Every structure is written in C-alpha cells, then in structure tokens.
Amino acid sequence: VFFFQAEDGIRDFCLSRGLGDVYKRQAVQADLSLPRNTPVKTLAEIEQDSQNLDALACSYYECQGVICFVKSGLYYKGCPTETCKRKVNELGNNQYRCEFCQKNFDDFEAKYIINAKLCDDTGTSWVTLYDKTGTQLFGCKAQELRIILETEGEDAIK
C-alpha cells in the first residue's frame, strides 16, 4: 500500500492527528502480481536480507510504506506500438525512432518510470515504479499525465 499527500503533492511522511484536510491521503493498493506466499517485511528486514544474498540473487517481498519523495521525470518517451515498450530516440522535427521496431513515428507514447523513496517506520529505500504501478498510483496512464503536464503545467498535479 502506498500513501501520498493528495493536497499539495508528495511530501515527507507525517501522521495526521485530526488535522482534517491538511493531511489528506489516498491509499493505493499496487497489484504487482508477486509470487504466492510472498513474505511481508519492513524495509529494515528487507535491507538485512539483501546483505545476505549474492549480487545476482532475486527475492520478492511485500512491504507497506509511504512514498516520501519522487524524483522529477515521471515518464520516458516510449514506442507507440502496442507490443513494444522500448525508449524512442528523438530525430528532430517531431519525429521519433524506435531502434527495436526499426520504425519512425510522429509522436511517442509516455510510459511511467518513477524513481521514488519509499519510507516506513524502520527505514527508507529507493524504488523504481514502472508503467502498471504508475498507472495505479496516479489513476491515469502516463500518456494522459503527459498531456496534462504539457497543457496545464506541473502545478496541475501538485
């Protein structure tokens, strides 16, 4: 479950002690399709476990936390074809090229790649959220967010 400050953008975690609208929060359940019986752990427990793994090992955990910071740049310029999620290169004159598909396009499709700091009461960890989770978090596709940002500016999402 991720929590974020809905009123003035994403900020540091603070407990609301009856302050009403000042600390409006929205809970988002992220469906990450984790393997069955994924253990629920705190960030400190995950950090401790990661020190005991070799560099190539992969483990899955479920964690409840608060997004306390998001780096700028919420999406990348992606290939607009349905099956490709690769980054496109700008050619100039509003032309984009996907090297994987070997095609040029008049536009790109925004795809989420969100670098965020996740916090719980035991620690913090940097996480990367991709398209599916970003759509759940923001309640819209990255392409819709792109249009909002291009037409109304960043103040529209704060």
Describe the structure.
The protein is α+β, with helices and mostly antiparallel strands and 158 residues long. Helix content is 18%, strand content 31%. The strands form two sheets. Strands 1, 2, 3, 4, 8 and 9 form a six-stranded mixed sheet that branches. The longest helix is centred in the last third of the chain and has 11 residues, at 142-152. The relative contact order is 0.17.
Mean pLDDT over the full residue set: 78
Cα gyration radius (Å): 18 Å
Find the count of extended strands (DSSP E, 2+ residues).
Answer: 9
- Count every helix, treating DSSP H or I runs of 4 or more residues as helices: 3
Biggest sheet, open or closed, and with what strands and sense? Answer: 6 strands, mixed
Low-confidence stretches: 1-27
Task: Report the β-strand fraction as a percent range.
Answer: 25-35%
Q: Structural class, judged by helices and strands?
A: alpha+beta
Characterize the overall form: globular
Distance between the termini: 21 Å
Could you give the order of the helices and strands?
Answer: EEHEEEEEEEHH
Helical content class: 10-25%
